[in-house]
Amino acid sequence: MRSAGAVSTFGVYVHVPFCTVRCGYCDFNTYTVGFGEGAEPDTYAASIERELAQATASGLTRVADTVYLGGGTPSLLPADELERILDSVRRRVGVRAGAEVSMEANPDTVTPEAARRWARAGVTRVSMGMQSAVSHVLRTLERTHRPESIPAAVAAVREAGMDVSLDLIYGTPGESLADWEASLRAVIGLVPDHISAYGLVVEEGTKMGRLVRTGVLPAPDDDDEAMKYRLADGLLGEAGYRWYEISNWARPDEDEADLTDACDLRHVSRHNLAYWREGEWWGCGPGAHSFVGGRRWWNVKHPRAYAARLRAGESPRAGEETPDAEARRLEHLMLGIRLSSGLAWADAGASSGGDHLRDLVSAGYVSLRRGGVAVSMSEVCDDDRVVLTLKGRLLADEVTRRLAFG
Question: Which one, of 226, 106, 240, 109, lies nearest residue 166 by Cα?
Fold first, then answer.
């Protein structure tokens, strides 16, 4: 059974695992070389087509509200392969009129001709990994692009008629507060439709993880990252962007000035918002996860094994599970509290009898809202919303734990 507050949207996610280099901080399921038929950029569409054929043969009847090509670097795919993938999604699954179709791109792969081809294929939104506007920070992250390539990439996407989203990372070893401010001001100056800002997490098993463990690089500092998040929220807010998820801000259009909830803005990532609102999605590609009908499953991770199974007519699934009611409750709290729409009092308060929520309000971690207007504990009702404050956003995991367990 789905949680209260879950939405009925359906998305298709296509994982494209290819990169020119593997960045030292990255722990995503990515690979830098091809692995034979169906497992390299110029033959990859055939594997996705086979998986989508299995999906429809298994009884999938949902039509996609959103499509997202992530990775890896989807922009490394030849344009005809990308077109073939999106055509297959339309033929096998169906895509609603006005659907958001997003793809991720590295700035150094974006050209005017490529952007025009993506737009003709049906892409409506390009999310670029800018990460920083400071050269030494990009070098530490082992990014392949230069800061000066960003404006031309943004212009190419915009001129092709697609929305532009730019991703930033803060907390890189050696990044000063002035460096971070320079990146923020650079991204604001490009006036993208959407901005994401993520605190660097050093993962075990990555090159950066080894460098930090051996003392070659300093570990990210929690206080430094908190200061940088506050700076981001302040500067982005001054520039007119509104936060709708802890790490995401969208630019309102002129006719959206009076919208109470930033989740309703036109330029939010509708595909990602559906994840946070517990929608359903089918994930294609090596390592991709899916959630349909209360079940989760995930594919084998290696591109060669993924392609081989599909060529043999076998399922690429590596495992599956059905979350129980308690797991779904915890997920509902964890995801919902991240959003500017927050959680209904009936959900958040009921999980702790209200006492712990009162403590969170008193400590300034959450506020109670009704139609965007603050209300007090004495007048709260079940339909009112529990929303993270800026202080609470900095400690969202702790807030979630206290909501869930007291």
Answer: 106
Provide the edge-to-edge strand list for the sheet that holds 366-370.
Answer: 343-344, 385-388, 366-370, 373-374
- Tell me whether residue 57 is exposed, middle or buried, using C-beta atoms within 10 angstroms of its C-beta: 0 to 12, 13 to 18, 19 or more: exposed
For range 319-338, the mean pLDDT? 95
CA gap 332, 7 in Å, rounded: 12
312 alpha-carbon distance from chain centroid: 32
Closest CA to 394 of 230, 284, 252: 230
Percentage with pLDDT > 70 across the chain: 97
CB atoms within 10 A of CB 375: 16
Q: What is the DSSP letter of 246?
A: T
Q: Which amino acid is at 109?
A: T
Give the CATH fold of the 10-276 domain.
TIM Barrel (3.20.20)
Is the domain spanning 326-405 CATH 1.20.120? The answer is no
pLDDT band at 382 (very low <50, low <70, confident <90, very high): confident
DSSP-based three-state secondary structure for 85: helix
| CA dihedral angle for residue 234, residue 235, residue 241, residue 244, rounded to 10 degrees | -40
| DSSP result, 257-273 | TT-S-GGG-TTS-HHHH
Instruction: Give the pLDDT confidence score for residue 35 in this predicted structure.
Output: 86
Q: What is the CA radius of gyration of the chain?
A: 21
| Sign of the C-alpha dihedral computed for residues 279, 283, 288 and 294 taken in this order | positive
Where along the chain do its domains lie?
Answer: 10-276, 326-405
Distance CA 348, CA 4 (A): 11
With H, G, I as helix, E, B as strand and everything else as coil, classify residue 163: strand
Highest mean pLDDT among 27-31, 326-330, 356-360: 326-330
C-alpha distances out from residue 188 to 73, 155, 238, Å: 24, 14, 10
Q: What is the pLDDT of residue 5?
A: 46
CB 183 within 8 Å of CB 134 = yes
Quick one: pLDDT at residue 125?
A: 98
Contact by Cβ (8 Å): 302, 296: no
